[in-house]
């Protein structure tokens, strides 16, 4: 059962960017649609369970949601410059890099020097896979590729903080969801409505209800997984979402790959899978 729970984020987070692009909504419509449904569902959960919060716990959980808001902003923006099957390996890999280092150094999940070295070697394999997948783009070094890559790295750092902060302060999973969703929604709304040139179309906001459900499904399961098996291992397993994103980008969004690109994608994906599995086994 623990493994099944740990695998749910792979599906939810893997499909989320695919569905978001399929909806053809802009970044702000996607964020609003996602967070509105998440806030609605977590409010029901909050009312059902009748949780009470201290100011510090509520604030930290909200801050987690704020980090998510900025993380998703940059991730969705990056998808305007790079295909899902190219962007998400960078996103998943860099999140895994930041989260593994965070869990090892700050959460003391590296018990020995040997374990730390092995984890870093696994990360090197994952980074190699990311480079292989995006080899063509990296060699071109166009403005759009550089811009998208920088956005993804900022996004990954923010998303690492979103998933790490509550774990660092040992706040249990079920307490996190409502104030976190509130932080997500407020941040998304402030970002969206502060953009004077942005067009917010209500039908496209509504279309992203499934994006919200997918994210909520992944989020709830990842926080429970963290409690069961630790941040490092739970997040390692969740980042197998890269497989879902790559496959979804090609078969659902119709992202075309020529011979060299297809070969690089296969080799890079295999390297990432090997690295992620090895990293998980090293926990």
Automatic annotation (TrEMBL):
Its main location: membrane. GO terms for molecular function: carbohydrate transmembrane transporter activity. It is found in: Cell membrane. GO terms for cellular component: plasma membrane. The chain crosses the membrane at residues 30-48, 55-74, 116-133, 145-165, 171-193, 205-226, 232-253, 265-281. It comes from the Bacteria. It is a multi-pass membrane protein. The keyword Transmembrane applies. The keyword Transmembrane helix applies. SUPFAM superfamilies: Multidrug resistance efflux transporter EmrE (SSF103481). Keywords: Membrane, Sugar transport, Transmembrane, Transmembrane helix, Transport. Pfam families: Sugar_transport (PF06800). InterPro entries: EmrE-like, Sugar_transport. Belongs to the GRP transporter (TC 2.A.7.5) family. This is EamA family transporter. The lineage of its organism: Bacteria, Bacillati, Bacillota, Bacilli, Lactobacillales.
